[in-house]
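BUG-306 | component: ligand-complex export | severity: low

The export step for flavin-adenine dinucleotide jobs runs without errors, but we want the raw record kept on the ticket for reference. Input record follows.
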Amino acid sequence: PFDVLVVGGGPAGAAAAIYAARKGIRTGVLAERFGGQVLDTLAIENFISVEHTEGPKLAAALEQHVKSYEVDIMNLQRARALVPGELVEVQLESGATLQARSVIIATGARWREMNVPGEQEYRGKGVAYCPHCDGPLFKGKRVAVIGGGNSGVEAAIDLAGVVAHVTLLEFDSQLRADAVLQRKLLSLPNVTVITSAQTSEVMGNGEKVNGLRYTDRTDGSSHAVELEGIFVQIGLLPNTDWLKGTVALSPRGEIEIDARGQTSVPGVFAAGDATTVPYKQIVIAMGEGSKAALSAFDHLIRSSAP
Ligand code: FAD
């Protein structure tokens, strides 16, 4: 069996694997797609100490760093279930089963998409999902935020300080964010809020976004808004369906962890976007992955088996 089996090959999983391997213990990494969300990212300008890099470049560097240690990398493999026990079992979609004395879950998350024409075509060309990451790229421009929950309203407040104008579109007849956030939002001079609005199309000139179209749900009329960027804030979905019933999850499906990355199952740790840790970012995922690996090592040296 593995001493540490990491499930997930994004920033959190890569960091966990490196920290575990450096303890000289038997380490494996299982990943559906090594690199994770970083592969879908273009410019990265908040990876501290690196002024600018690109997703695929960082993903390749992550893999190379992991490969410089003795780590068993199982890429293009998907975990299907986890079975707790003295030896934790991870069952794969392929039918195989892996055993480990400790497991670190770092299966990440994915942004919920609008599923409207133009969204995929203009992803990274005006359509964005992460205000902390891409907000500064829209300095002085006009943007829309899709979604009036807490994350949408927080994003609109954040962006209003950077961009020229923010239009917030909410599907429902009212915003769903906390009242204190709504008050702050409505106090800002460069924000317009449109409720009962269903985004129907992302428009562009072939190279980048130049507008969006929405349907007013009260009367079915269609409207266009001219802008340069669209931040989609309609939910972040953790990749934790395969853990339902075994590991304690929050109401949003995030793996509940303590300050050391310990989950509700002994010997099972978790890190990164799949967990309850606030703020989903690369540097945070790496820190959390490192922490989970050190906690797993601590668990191993305290458990009875040699
Ligand atoms: P992920 O990167 O999601 O990795 C999850 C890993 O688990 C993947 O290898 C996946 O294949 C694997 N996996 C999932 N399910 C299974 C399964 N059942 N079995 C096996 N493997 C599985 N952050 C920044 O800090 N700066 C930025 O500029 C930035 N820009 C972004 C732009 C975009 C378009 C997106 C989508 C995200 C961006 N982020 C940015 C956020 C950042 O990418 C994430 O916070 C970070 O990748 C989270 O790391 P993670 O390791 O927790 O999860």
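Assignee comment: Attached the raw record above. The mean pLDDT is 97.
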